[in-house]
Every structure is written in C-alpha cells, then in structure tokens.
Specification:
By secondary structure, the protein is mainly alpha-helical. The chain has one domain: Growth Hormone, Chain: A. Helix 4 runs antiparallel to helix 7, helix 5 runs antiparallel to helix 13 and helix 10 packs across helix 12. The termini are far apart.
C-alpha cells in the first residue's frame, strides 16, 4: 500500500465528485443519442430506447451489493480497481455493439462496474466525516457532480454532430481511465488493516439484518429509492419529451443544462442550510414541496385536457421539481448511512443497491408509460413523493 500524505480537502471533494460523476456522464452523455442508437440497431418501438438507460441503472443496483462488503474486507482501493476494470470491459463492448441486445448487456456491465466508485466513494467519505459534516461534504460533492449533467448532453450532442454515437462511449472510456489514474496516484487508503473484516455471505446477511432493524437506515433507504425512481422516470423520458414532443433536436442539451443547474443550486443551498436546520427538517420541507408542486401542476394540465401544454410550463414545473429533488439526494443518503458507522462499506453497498433497485424498477415503469405528454412523469413524482412523505413521518415518529 502506498504511504501517501492525506489528500487536501478540496482535492478530496473534487476526486470523490468526479468518481461518482462518471455515473452521470455515462447516463447523460448518451441521452441525445438514444433515438439514433435505436434506429441504427433496428429498434422500432421508441419507448424501448429507454432501456439503454434502465439497464445501466439495473447493473448499478446489483453491483452495489458486493463492493461495500469487499471494501470492508480488502480496504477501499482494491474494489475501486475491480469495478473500474468491469466498467472498461462494458465500455469496449458498447463501442463495438452490433445489436440492441448486446448494447443493453454492455450497459448493464458498465453499471455493475461504476457501482464501485459510487458505493466505495460513499464509504470513503463516511470514513472521514459523519453527521451534518458528512452531509455538508456530500452537498459539495453534489455541486461538482452537477456540472456533469449540465455539460454531458452537450458533449454527447457535439460528438453526435461530427462523428457517430460510438464516439460517445470512446470518450466516456477515456475519461474513466484518467479518473482511475488520478485516484491511484493521489488517494490514500482510508480503512486501516486492523479495522477490516473478512468477507463472507454471512456478513452480508448480518449487515442487511442490521439495516432492517435500524428504522432510520431502513426507511430512508426506501425513501431514497422512491425519490430516485421519480427522477429516473424523468431521465428516461427527457429525450422524448424535449427532442420529439417539443422538437428541440440539437437544443435539447441547453434545456437539460438549465434543469441540471437547478439541481446544482439546490445542492449549494443545502450545504448552507443543513448545518442550521438539520437533515430531517430539510427533507420534510423538500418532499412536501415536491408533492404540492406535482399535484398543482397535474391539476392545471388536466383542467382542460384539450389545451396545449406549452414548453415554458413544462420547464417551470421541472425546474422547481428538480430543485427540491436536489435537496433530497445528499440528505437522504446521509440519513440512511448515519447510524451505520461500524459497517460503513457494507452499509453503503446495501443501501445503494436497494435504493437504486427500487429507483430503477419504478423509474423504468414510469418512463415506459410515456404517451407523448409529460403527465406520466408528473404522476410518478406524485406517487413516489406521497409514499416518501408517509414513510418519513412514520420513521421520525418511531
């Protein structure tokens, strides 16, 4: 193991954010190309192009089950190297995929691979920080992380304009290799040898049972999954809404960047307010606002079903919705992780796996309901937000 000096705070935040942002890059850079990829690989039913996104999330969910436990046994760095190797394999397969099925399989592998930096990154942060300080670090990480959704669709659209969709996967692979080299050179091991525990299936079962018996960890994991499901439903449908429903074509990345900026603004504001008001209060306010905005918008749009839903109305709704979603992301993860300091790696793995699995399944169902309007997306936020509200108040009463 390299004897490295502790990485400075700002570089630590930047590295963790960039590692986790590989997930967003692998999703958002591909969004403008979904229709092109589907046409090129012979996919006739347009809603099925969303599976290019959903299969990635499914791999991300399943991969997280293992990496946390491995990081508690091997240390934090080795599982990162394993996951990134799988990501490289999936990226190469994506570049050369000659059928829709093979591309879906390669995206699934990419997701399994990037589950490693997503999960182990959370454990590394938990090794160094806890409580509101952890939430503050996560908010800073989210701020850097948000730059990727702002820029990634423009990157994908630009590559699509001058080359073909395969070039997007080539660039994603190259960026991933650079981040891996940065991590190898600069990040020290944060889990001491004496704190490691042997990997076993029994250990995994024990950790799942501990999370199940810890109300805050268990219920906030479910809540995180439901909110993620509403958000994934938005991601799955966004290309069709903007490029097809509103015929924005090459302008899609600009509108997506505006929405991603709303997430970033929320993360920045949360980093200031969470130390003053606490995570639970911030979460309650954000979920209530999410449900109120969705119900109000749904009512307005359905008051006159024959009326045209204008683009500015859609943008207004989504900017507000994603702002409050941005407040939720970091806080929900931190609330679920906070009681699990003794099993930080395995805990992050299981929480990430279950929340992403819930999000991927509910988000896929929401996306596949796309009917040429934004209504199914809004209904997704109403249902997921309302369930989350019930669970949060139940948890805090207990």
């Amino acid at each position: 193991m390299n004897q490295l000096k502790s990485i400075p705070f700002l570089e630590f935040v930047a590295l963790m954010a960039t590692m986790m942002a590989l997930t967003a890059l692998s999703i958002d850079a591909v969004l403008p190309a979904l229709a092109t990829i589907g046409n090129d690989l012979g996919q006739l039913y347009k809603n099925n192009n969303q599976l290019i996104i959903s299969s990635f999330f499914l791999g991300l969910a399943l991969g997280q089950f293992v990496y946390g436990a491995l990081s508690d046994s091997w240390g934090r760095k080795s599982p990162i190297y394993l996951g990134m190797s799988i990501f490289v394999l999936g990226s190469i397969m994506s570049i050369f995929a000659n059928s829709f099925g093979l591309l879906i399989a390669s995206r699934f592998l990419q997701g399994i691979g990037l589950a490693s930096p997503r999960t182990v990154g959370m454990a590394i942060i938990r090794d160094r920080y806890k409580g509101s300080e952890m939430a503050r670090v996560m908010s800073f990480v989210m701020m850097v992380f948000i730059l990727v959704p702002v820029l990634a669709p423009s990157l994908g659209q630009g590559l699509l304009s001058f080359m073909n969709w395969r070039s997007i996967f080539i660039v994603i692979l190259g960026i991933g290799m650079l981040v891996l080299f940065w991590f190898y050179q600069r990040m020290e091991e944060t889990l001491k040898i004496e704190q490691r525990v042997p990997f076993s299936v029994q250990q995994l079962k024990k950790a799942i049972l501990e999370i199940y018996k810890t109300p805050r960890a268990f219920y906030y994991t479910i809540t995180s999954g439901l909110i993620s499901g509403a958000f994934i439903g938005f991601l799955n449908s966004s290309q069709q809404v903007f490029q097809e429903q509103y015929q924005l074509k090459e302008q899609f990345p600009l509108y997506f960047a505006a929405l991603a900026s709303s997430l970033g603004a929320a993360a920045f504001l949360n980093s200031k307010l969470v130390l003053k008001y606490g995570m639970v209060r911030m979460v309650k306010i954000a979920v209530v606002m999410l449900v109120l905005i969705a119900c109000t918008t749904w009512g307005i749009f359905n008051l006159n079903p024959q009326a045209t839903i204008h683009l500015w109305q859609v943008m207004t709704y989504l900017v507000l919705t994603l702002f409050f979603t941005g407040i939720l992301f970091g806080n929900l993860s931190s609330l679920a992780m906070e009681p699990l300091g003794k099993i930080a790696g395995t805990g992050a793995s299981i929480i990430g796996a279950f929340s992403t699995l819930i999000g991927a399944s509910t988000g896929t169902l929401t996306g596949l309901r796309y009917n040429g309007t934004i209504i199914p997306m809004i209904e997704g936020f109403i249902i997921m937000g309302s369930l989350s509200l019930v669970i949060i108040y139940h948890t805090e009463r207990k």
